[in-house]
Write a structure and sequence with these properties.
With 162 residues, the chain is mainly α. It folds into two domains: 78 residues, Rna Polymerase Sigma Factor, Chain: A, CATH 1.10.1740.10; 70 residues, Winged helix-like DNA-binding domain superfamily/Winged helix DNA-binding domain (Arc Repressor Mutant, subunit A, Orthogonal Bundle), CATH 1.10.10. Helices cover 72% and strands 0% of the residues. It has seven helices and no strands. Helix 1 crosses helix 5, helix 4 packs across helix 7 and helix 6 crosses helix 7.
Length: 162
């Protein structure tokens, strides 16, 4: 395995897995999609612009997730999700855990492309330009949709917070 490829895996595997986990709501499927994305990166590493590896990989990961969601629910709306509880880490306080759960549920309730926008921009800190490339949107669409997504999150969280 090339040193360059190994560096990309170490640098981007958590971001790819987090994106896949948010979209698929299934850790095993997320892992499978990420593995497929990294295999594609291995096969195309010479043809992908080295400065655009991260957006390329996030786009491939997201497309893999969307393909799985289409196969999973062919007659339902694309982004209907199963609800799964996850146990909190040992150091999380009850209030922090509850707030985190509310935020996670609010993000999960967003429809596409809003969910992907929030994950890519706010969680992974991708630039607006990278998000535009990954989601195949214009820069102005990214900004408008992200504004709408954040507004929806604020409204959802205002309903549950005391």
């Amino acid at each position: 395995m090339s040193r360059r490829y190994r560096k990309w895996v170490e640098e981007y595997q958590n971001q790819a897995w987090t994106l896949a986990r948010y979209l698929l709501k299934d850790a095993q499927e997320a892992e499978d999609v990420c593995q497929e994305a990294f295999v594609k990166l291995w096969n195309h590493q010479d043809s992908v612009d080295k400065d655009k590896i991260r957006p390329w990989l996030m786009k491939v990961t997201r497309n893999g997730c969307l393909d799985r969601l289409r196969r999973r629910h062919p007659t339902e709306e694309l982004m209907e999700w199963r609800h799964q509880d996850e146990t909190p880490g040992p150091m999380q306080g009850l209030q922090q855990h509850q707030t985190g759960q509310w935020l996670k549920q609010a993000i999960e309730a967003l429809k596409e492309p809003y969910r992907s926008l929030v994950v890519l921009r706010d969680i992974h800190q991708h630039s607006y330009g990278e998000v535009a490339v990954v989601l195949e949107l214009s820069l102005s669409q990214v900004k408008v949709y992200l504004h709408r997504a954040r507004k929806q999150l604020r409204e959802q969280l205002a309903e549950v917070r005391p």
